[in-house]
């Protein structure tokens, strides 16, 4: 490869990473700005949640379409159109004056942004040789994983310093640079014999994904299967998915090529992609409210404390890019999931007094684990995928990452709410005036000696926090009861978060044995002739 070609590829890598980060960032950057949007647009909490739901659902539906469009019209044409459309939709989101306008523009943003991640991945795999694809996926993975991790931090800072509208305006300079760079660096190459578009297959898949995503996103708000809406969405998703599978098996030209599902490494890789999405997004979803609501951290401090997670991810990705090809990639994936499990297990030992240093170190360790998983996983998963269907495989890979995150968030947020109620009920049974510790906790002096009330409270509520009453007079029963109730809620929520972290720790290790069924990269050195 000539110096000019190397320079061109280097600039292409930068542009592709910018496009990836821009889309991945928007999946989480708006979350912290929802309260500000709610006040600015005079919306209820349930209504403003559609700002997130509309983006997720539209992106999920449009993601499988990216592969077909790229094959039919060319990667360059679709990628440039997507970047321009995403940037314009972002500007319209920032300028929205009503909630319906904002939701409509977020749908547009999701549709245009759906192609960015899978097509960026396909472009990177085409630009690098098979021997260099591990390094390429490490660099590209920085964007896909750094975006969701840094989204809450950047979103909180922009909202605090400027307004929620800058959460969307920030995409303008990045989008312009990406579009110009792609037009200069990428040559358009469409298929000479594109396969026919399977409208029925796409419609069934879109209906299944859209209904399933709506069910996951709306379930917690409307009490899951006690709501007729959730039941209808679940039935529609199940029926549409079953019909899609039957249609794919019988159609001459299915929407998703059947060859994708015959590739063992890809199928196992997609499972691990979903698990990685779950670990990355769910932890980033649960930790901010734990720090803000239970520890009392402001938004910006929360972002700073969580930032080392992204630093660990970047460092480990750069290290692993040099190890791929020298070390069995399956061992790297297992090590990464093991580090994630250790980090998540440590989070199950958190108390309300956990130090910032411990949170920072824990996040850094978890970031290192995630960074070890992604590049070798992508390299192994796509090693035997034929070039002609690689773009469709990349779209399916992006879809599985998003679905894994969505399922994880829905399940663990529901589990969190349920456990808070159960924990509060169990703890309240022991918090009565008949408990001997109650009298000591409300007594400042016993036999002329000051009572260590914080220690007493630690026996009544063993999850940290110290003496909760501040300057509340101990002879004011109504105020004491109110403070006890508030502290009881805080302690119950703390235990519920720890239970969720335990589920995540188990999820990180339970799939590791499946790595034995993936073929090693040494066995995949011969390029596919299919």
Would you give an account of this structure?
- The chain is 74% helix and 1% strand.
- It has 22 helices and two strands.
- A two-stranded antiparallel sheet has the order 1-2.
- Strand 1 and strand 2 form a beta hairpin.
- The longest helix has 41 residues, at 390-430.
Q: What multimeric state do the chains show?
A: single chain
From the alpha carbons, calculate the radius of gyration and give it in angstroms: 25 Å
Overall average residue pLDDT: 80
Which structural class matches the secondary elements? mainly alpha
Q: Could you say which overall geometry the principal axes of the C-alpha atoms support? A: globular
Order of helices and strands, N to C? Answer: HHHHHHHHHHHHHHHHHHHHEEHH
Uncertain ranges? 444-456, 462-474, 522-530
Largest beta sheet: strand ordering: 1-2
Topology, element by element:
Elements: H1 3-26, H2 34-40, H3 45-48, H4 50-62, H5 65-73, H6 75-95, H7 99-113, H8 116-127, H9 133-161, H10 166-169, H11 171-185, H12 199-219, H13 228-250, H14 258-262, H15 264-294, H16 299-323, H17 329-347, H18 356-382, H19 390-430, H20 436-441, E1 445-446, E2 449-450, H21 453-460, H22 477-510
Antiparallel strand pairs: 1-2
């Amino acid at each position: 490869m000539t110096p000019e070609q190397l320079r061109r590829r280097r600039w292409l890598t930068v542009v592709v990473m910018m496009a990836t980060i821009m889309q991945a960032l928007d999946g989480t950057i708006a979350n912290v700005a929802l309260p500000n949007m709610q006040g600015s647009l005079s919306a209820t909490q349930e209504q403003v949640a559609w700002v997130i739901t509309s983006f997720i659902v539209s992106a999920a539906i449009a993601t499988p379409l990216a592969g077909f469009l790229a094959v039919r019209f060319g990667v360059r044409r679709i990628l440039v159109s997507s970047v321009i459309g995403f940037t314009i939709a972002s500007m319209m989101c920032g300028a929205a004056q009503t909630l319906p306008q904002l939701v409509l523009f977020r749908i547009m943003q999701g549709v245009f942004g759906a192609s960015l991640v899978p097509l960026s991945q396909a472009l990177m795999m085409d630009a690098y040789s098979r021997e260099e694809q591990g390094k390429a996926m490490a660099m590209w993975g920085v964007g896909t994983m750094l975006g969701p991790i840094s989204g809450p931090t950047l979103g909180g800072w922009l909202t605090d310093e400027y307004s929620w509208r800058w959460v969307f305006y920030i995409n303008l300079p990045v989008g312009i640079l990406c579009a110009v760079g792609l037009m200069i660096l990428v040559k358009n190459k469409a298929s000479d014999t594109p396969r026919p578009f399977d409208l029925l297959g796409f419609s069934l898949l879109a209906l299944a994904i859209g209904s399933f995503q709506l069910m996951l996103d709306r379930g917690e708000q409307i009490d899951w299967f006690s709501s007729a809406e959730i039941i209808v969405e679940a039935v529609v998703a199940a029926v549409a998915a079953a019909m899609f599978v039957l249609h794919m098996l019988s159609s001459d030209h299915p929407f998703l090529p059947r060859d994708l599902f015959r590739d063992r490494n890809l199928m196992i890789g997609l499972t691990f992609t979903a698990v990685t999405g779950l670990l990355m997004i769910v932890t980033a979803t649960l930790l901010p409210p734990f720090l803000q609501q239970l520890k009392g951290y402001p938004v910006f401090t929360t972002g700073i404390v969580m930032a080392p997670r992204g630093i660990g991810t970047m460092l480990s990705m750069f290290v692993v890019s040099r190890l791929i090809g020298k070390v069995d990639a399956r061992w790297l994936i297992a090590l990464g999931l093991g580090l994630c499990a250790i980090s998540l297990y440590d989070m199950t030992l958190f108390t309300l007094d956990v130090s910032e240093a411990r949170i920072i170190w824990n996040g850094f360790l978890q970031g290192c684990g995630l960074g070890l998983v992604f590049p070798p996983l992508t390299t192994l998963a796509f090693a035997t995928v034929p070039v002609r269907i690689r773009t469709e495989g990349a779209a399916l890979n992006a879809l599985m990452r998003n679905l894994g995150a969505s399922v994880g968030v829905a399940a663990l947020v529901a589990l969190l709410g349920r456990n808070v109620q159960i924990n509060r009920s169990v703890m309240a049974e022991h918090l009565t005036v008949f408990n001997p510790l109650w009298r000591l906790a409300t007594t400042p002096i016993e036999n002329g000696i000051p009572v260590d009330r914080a220690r007493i409270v630690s026996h009544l509520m063993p999850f940290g926090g110290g003496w909760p009453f501040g300057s509340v007079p101990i002879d004011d029963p109504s105020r004491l009861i109110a403070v006890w109730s508030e502290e009881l809620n805080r302690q119950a929520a703390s235990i519920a978060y720890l239970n969720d972290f335990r589920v995540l720790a188990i999820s990180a290790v339970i799939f590791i044995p499946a790595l034995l069924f993936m073929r090693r990269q040494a066995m995949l050195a011969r390029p596919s002739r299919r």
